[in-house]
Amino acid sequence: MIDSHCHIAGQEFAGDLDAVIARARAAGLEGALTILAADDDAELDRARDVQRLWPEVRFSIGVHPHAAGKFAEEPSAAAAAVDAAIDAQPAARAVGEIGLDYHYDFAPREAQHAVFGAQIALALRRRLPIVIHTREAEDDTFRILEEQGAGAVPVVFHCFTGTPETARRVLDAGYYLSLAGIVTFPRALELKQVAAFVPLDRLLLETDSPYLAPVPHRGKRNEPAHVAVVADTVAALRGEAPERIRLATTATFRRIFNP
């Protein structure tokens, strides 16, 4: 089993990273994809500790849409920062998380579009998968991905929280989607429908640690070990054995990220 999206190089785990990793291994995790912000030097430095303690971990590096405003005058500088960070991190396997976020609008939308497009171009040039963050911006996200020809590499919609119709749009475009702890929330009825029909060869599981802890850990700091709860919930929703879900999503992860 693999946690396909977590932030364990974040400051939230600096005090007990070794224990967090020990619990992940005890829960049966073979590895994880840790997300790094190319504009956060401290996080890039902490990634070395993650790799030392958990050599099987791989990384995805990008400029989040919240930070796009820093690069409003020169969007290509965002891609350059990601490019340099990937060169400095041998375990990097993807570009992301990148995309659009209209819920908070922490960055001007025009800057988000330009920075997103520049990073897609980088991923295509480097032939790396893309990890997508999209919130209340689905139409523009799909449009920019299509305009850039992003389907030439694997595209993963991380922490998918959309409707069944949006899920089908993801699948029809040839992309992948990843489910996080939200699928365990009692009121996430549409997401439970999505979990039931997504083909296993297009499905990933994640925690998005330290965020979105699943039931029964809701309200606490999330961590990679809890991806086992997500797997068990998805298995129940599909009427399948948990081990089948774990094996299938791990195989999908390995096919996408070539760890």
Commentary on this structure:
β7, α7 and β8 (203-205) form a beta-alpha-beta unit. α3 packs parallel to α4 (109-126), α4 runs parallel beside α5 (138-148) and α8 packs across α9. 49% of the residues are buried. The protein has one domain (2-257): Metal-dependent hydrolases (TIM Barrel). The protein has helices at residues 17-26, 41-53, 75-88, 109-126, 138-148, 164-172, 189-197, 227-238, 242-257, and strands at 2-6, 31-37, 58-62, 92-101, 130-135, 155-157, 176-179, 203-205. The protein is globular, with a radius of gyration of 17 Å. The protein has an eight-stranded parallel beta sheet. The longest helix has 18 residues, at 109-126. The two termini are 13 Å apart. The mean pLDDT is 97. It is an alpha/beta fold and 259 residues long. Helix content is 43%, strand content 17%. The protein is built from nine helices and eight strands.
Short description:
By secondary structure, this protein is of the alpha/beta class. It is built from nine helices and eight strands. Helices cover 43% and strands 17% of the residues.
Q: How much helical structure, as a percent, in the residues?
A: 40-55%
Provide the CATH topology.
Answer: TIM Barrel
The run of helices and strands is EHEHEHEHEHEHEHEHH
Number of domains: 1
CATH arch. level architecture: Alpha-Beta Barrel
Any chance you could write out the topology, listing elements then pairs?
Blueprint: E1 2-6, H1 17-26, E2 31-37, H2 41-53, E3 58-62, H3 75-88, E4 92-101, H4 109-126, E5 130-135, H5 138-148, E6 155-157, H6 164-172, E7 176-179, H7 189-197, E8 203-205, H8 227-238, H9 242-257
Parallel strand pairs: 1-2, 2-3, 3-4, 4-5, 5-6, 6-7, 7-8
